[in-house]
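@channel sequence for tomorrow's demo:
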Amino acid sequence: MEEPQGTGTPSGGQHYREIASKLREIARECRFPGARREILDLASRLERRADDLDAKSGLAESGGTID
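structure tokens (generated this afternoon):
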């Protein structure tokens, strides 16, 4: 069952950024360079997704459209 989103729930973009931050912490502890790079790449993709989500959210709040 899905929990309702309240005021304590971060925005979509912020949630992705939190996950990216945790992934970077994990990458710092990883001994394997290849795995570390993959984890950091995933963190970067999540940051970009957060940026896109925030940009779309800003357009929706301002009443704009996506071209």
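heads up for whoever presents: The helical segments are 12-29, 33-62.
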